[in-house]
Amino acid sequence: MDKLQCMDAFVRVAESGSFIKAAEQLGVTRSVISSRIQQLENFIKAPLFHRSTRSVRLSDIGERYYHECADIIKRFEFLADEMAHATSKMQGRLRIHMAPGFAIDHFGHLLTIFLKEYPDLNIDIVVNDRIIDPIAEGFDIVFQMFPPTGESLVERKLFNVNRVLCCSPQYLKNIEPIQHPEQLKDLPLGYYSGYPTRNRIQYLEGTEFKDMEINIHVLSSSVHLLRDFALSEGGIVCLPTLVSHKHIMNQQLITILPEYPLLNYGLRAVFPANSKNLSKIRKLLDFLLARLDTIPTWDVELIKAQHLSEKVKLFQ
After folding, report:
1. Predicted local confidence at residue 109, as pLDDT
2. 22-26, 136-140, 217-221, 281-285: range with lowest mean pLDDT
3. Integer angstrom CA distances of residue 79 from 182, 232, 281
4. What pLDDT shows up at residue 316?
5. Of all helices (H) and strands (E), which one includes residue 271?
6. Torsion-angle region of residue 92: left (phi > 0), alpha (psi -120 to 50) or beta?
7. Rounded distance, CA 178 to CA 8, Å?
8. DSSP 185
9. Distance from C-alpha of 203 to C-alpha of 212, rounded to nearest angstrom
């Protein structure tokens, strides 16, 4: 019996509340996790979990020793990571959860360069728009647009995420000219369901942000679907520039009222403060921050072409 592997399986199941999730985190099958837990239970001659068809919860003895086991695993992983770092070799696995807006069209080429520098590092990336707790889900780092909710989580902002209202040139020809944001109240819009304000937008007029209710015709959890909807002459949509800038620059999409910039967000890296893979996380973040500006290159292009207001440079 490998006591460390069995203890690691125990900690993963305890934190995720699931044998399946623990298996996904460790890159093994559910049966392997079950076997390791069983070996550990046989060794201590007591059950670590109360199991049912719907849930897995710690037994009394599991509760008693979980924190010590978790601390041992974290210290071991941290020590192993530091030893690898001391030889200037980054190795092991880094589990990443990433929003599609950044993953698609942007992260792939950065990852290629990063892995050329650290070829012994294995990367496991899940691309999804869900806002998750990296500790509960077993991820080392999460890239998302909104701030973390857990007190034990750390965040670092990578860049501003600006948004635009846009549509296809043909759709724009078939509607009344839009001179002011208030006119949008009467038009059906495509909107991302993950924004905190699902039926409102905030736009800058003068020096103040104005809040306005909008008429949502298509609500989606996918900004890429909304982009394709707009490209197909479906209507006006609200899109982050990181998924729409290429289509705006080649005039497949036209920005509406760029002189009234929308309230922006930021792409953040979120990770546990006491992560066992902290040195790997820092290497990745330092690499990305050296190549990404607060006002990203795609926004600089849009500003130069007057598709995006200069005022966004003042946004935090």
Report:
1. 94
2. 22-26
3. 58, 53, 15
4. 66
5. strand 265-272
6. left
7. 59
8. G
9. 8
Question: In Å, what is the CA distance from 30 to each residue of 19, 210, 263, 307?
Answer: 6, 52, 45, 51
Q: What is the mean pLDDT of residues 208-212?
A: 92
Pair 212, 184: CB distance under 8 Å:
yes
Place of tokens 């990336």: 125
Measured CA to CA in angstroms, residue 272 lies from 20, 134, 261 at distances of 22, 7, 34
Give 88-132 as a DSSP string: T---EEEEEEE-HHHIIIIIHHHHHHHHHH-TTEEEEEEE-----
For the segment 18-38, the average pLDDT, to the nearest whole number, is 87
- What are 176's two structure tokens? 């009344």
- Assess whether pLDDT exceeds 60 at residue 87: no
| Spatial contact of 257 and 201, defined as CB atoms under 8 Å apart | no
pLDDT tens digits, one per residue of 146-168: 777 766 788 889 999 999 999 99
The model's confidence at residue 86, banded by pLDDT at 50, 70 and 90, is: low
Q: How many whole angstroms separate alpha carbon 76 and alpha carbon 140?
A: 16
What are the chain's domains?
Answer: 3-84 (1.10.10.10), 92-160+266-294 (3.40.190.10), 163-263 (3.40.190.10)
Q: Once rounded to an integer, what is the mean pLDDT over residues 247-264?
A: 96
Q: Residue 85's pLDDT band (boundaries 50, 70, 90)? A: low
Place of tokens 């922006």: 264
Q: How far apart are CA 215 and CA 159, in angstroms?
A: 29
The CA distance from 236 to 253, in Å, is 10
How many C-beta neighbours within 10 Å does residue 168 have? 21
| Kind and range of the H or E run holding 143 | strand 141-144
For 205, the token pair is 């007029």
